[in-house]
Amino acid sequence: MAAPTAELSLEAADRRFDGAPPEETIAWAAEQFGEGLVLASSFNDCVLIDLVARTAPQVTVAFLDTQYHFAETLEYVEQVRARYGLRLEILRPLIAPDDLWQTDTDGCCAARKVEPLGRALRNRTAWMSGLRRSESETRASAPVVSWDSRWQAVKINPIVAWTDEQIEAYKRERELPEHPLTALGYRSIGCWPCTRPTSDDEDARAGRWSGSGKLECGLHLAAS
Predict the structure, then answer these.
(1) Helix pair 22-33, 47-55: axis angle to 10 deg
(2) At a CB cut-off of 8 Å and minimum separation 6, what does 222 contact?
(3) Domains of the chain by range and CATH?
(4) Which of 44, 101, 140, 170 lies in disulfide reach of 108, CB 3.0 to 4.6 Å?
(5) Which residues of 59-92 are buried (b: 16+ CB within 10 A; e: fewer)?
(6) Which of 37, 45, 75 is nearest to 159 (CA)?
């Protein structure tokens, strides 16, 4: 797919929805892209899933099962799936479990997250994520709407401007189920070998690949 032309001004859409209620962004995305839209969720929580379920319940939710998720995450996926009756698409790696995470975390993420997301986005024109600016310095300038050159698709981050306080307030208001590990200090939850709890004075994602210098799994990186 070629990058959008003037008929679909992503810069204008980004300006329009930056600061707007997420429901407006989601409704626009669903109308604009229809069946070409997918939500990629890590099931760290279900805030964006709840927003999408209320606004555009027909949207498919993709979960990348890396084979190294905590058992609590897999249980939470099923809990959320049952609550919302999700159109859930589960994508698994094309390789068996191994020890690559011990020697090459980038290679492990490439095989277990990046490649499966590529399959989730095949024949799709847009994807949504729950990425937020407050999560880390690498995400501080993330747009609401942009052209994702890596995946040759439009990327939409409906809750990108929400703070941790807004997330928590929404969870309380909507009485959302919590991931079981949240109460144990896990604020950003990935694979069990590469995730630790964090303290309040750390970025939410400081517990991911701790001490390695690695900040992103690769899903949200631009094409090189």
Answers:
(1) 60
(2) 148, 149, 150
(3) 10-207 (3.40.50.620)
(4) 101
(5) bbbbbbbbebbbebbeebbeebbeebebebeebe
(6) 45
Sheet architecture: strand order including 60-64: 88-91, 60-64, 37-40, 126-128, 153-156, 145-148
The answer for residues whose C-beta is within 8 angstroms of residue 198's C-beta and 6 or more apart is: 185, 186, 187, 188, 204, 206, 207
In 152-193, alpha helices (H): 164-174
Q: Per-residue pLDDT for the chain (224 aa), expressed as one digit of tens each?
A: 445 443 458 999 999 999 999 999 999 999 999 999 999 999 999 999 999 999 999 999 999 999 999 999 999 999 999 999 999 999 999 999 999 999 999 999 999 999 999 999 999 999 999 999 988 777 888 999 999 999 999 999 999 999 999 999 999 999 999 999 999 999 889 999 999 999 988 887 788 988 887 777 767 766 44
How is 47-85 classified by DSSP, letter by letter? Answer: HHHHHHHHH-TTSEEEEE--S-B-HHHHHHHHHHHHHHT
- 3-state SS, residue 25: helix
Rounded to whole angstroms, how far apart are CA atoms 126 and 30? 10
Collapse the DSSP code of 164 into the 3-class scheme (helix H, G, I; strand E, B; otherwise coil) and give the result.
helix
Q: Let me know how long the chain is.
A: 224
Residues tagged active-site: 217
d(CA 119, CA 206): 28
Indicate the pTM of the whole model: 0.90
On whether the CB atoms of residues 163 and 181 are closer than 8 A, the answer is: no
